[in-house]
Amino acid sequence: MSIMNDAKRELLMSYIKSNVAPILVDFIDGNSIHNSVVLPANCEITELNGHYDNVEFVSPEWLNKLEGSTPSILVIDKIDSIPKNEQTKFVEILKYRQVSTYELPKNTVIVVTAKEINENTINEEIYSLVAYIKG
User: Fold this and answer.
1) Which of 9, 13, 67, 76 has its CA 20 to 30 A from that of 25?
2) Three-state SS for 105?
3) Nearest Cα residue to 74 out of 19, 128, 124
4) Closest among 15, 112, 114 to 7, alpha carbons compared
5) H helix and E strand count, the chain
């Protein structure tokens, strides 16, 4: 990934502040956004949606961390590292700002990272739900 210059940083910050849509970027990775909760794209579905603990449904750990963070930034990291058909597991988060029965905290900013963004690496539905800042 390329280094984030001042113009890219300023554009990214303006998208984060406006929080109109999830943001797709190819010039940073999840560890580059301070105070964010990073969810690896290759996470298991139980890690993404939560799981049953005996008879009680437990919310995902990343969501619990997100609820306690300020600002509330969720990074779906390296989405292009998983097959396009598997990327659709993130549609609910990107489109409805929820996972399973749990809503994301209000004003949560969603950033999706990838190393390479093109029609071979990003699912069309995912791409339609994000604002792309080109690196």
Assistant:
1) 67
2) coil
3) 19
4) 15
5) 6, 9
Task: State how far the Cα of 135 lies from the Cα of 117, in Å rounded to an integer.
Answer: 10
Query: pLDDT tens digits for the chain (135 residues)?
Result: 445 678 887 888 888 888 889 999 999 988 888 889 999 999 998 899 987 777 788 889 999 899 877 779 999 999 999 999 999 999 999 999 999 889 999 889 999 999 999 999 999 999 999 999 987
77 DSSP β-pair partners = 40
What's the rounded Cα separation, in Å, for the pair 37 and 31?
9
Q: Do 110 and 18 meet the contact criterion of CB atoms below 8 Å apart?
A: no
* DSSP summary character for residue 104: P
Q: How many other CB atoms sit within 10 Å of the CB of residue 35? A: 9
Name the one residue in this structure whose structure tokens are 């990214």.
12
Residues 6+ apart with CB under 8 A from 4: 12, 27, 28, 32
